[in-house]
Amino acid sequence: MKKFLLLAHGEMQRTPEFFEAHQKWWSAIQDRVVDSGNPLVAGRRVTSNGDVSDISPDMTPALGYSIIEAESMDDAVALMADSPMDMWVYEAMPM
Fold this sequence. Notes:
Elements: E1 2-9, H1 16-28, E2 33-39, E3 44-46, E4 52-54, E5 62-70, H2 73-78, E6 86-92
Antiparallel strand pairs: 1-5, 1-6, 2-5, 3-4
């Protein structure tokens, strides 16, 4: 199994319907979760020359992360089918 990083992006509708859909989706993928992650707040961008700036809402910041296991990128993407959030999916290459 390979590991994949999930980054939640975009607006979350923080309604009872959103939380119900999220809980249903999250329960369905529990057997693939390696690290349930956490919400992300107060991000900063650090450039290679040392400039530091806050990550603003117009920069589409990541809202949270999780790590899952899947056979392939297609398998990982298929697990996002019922997610009520926009997700960015990255394969974590072993080092």
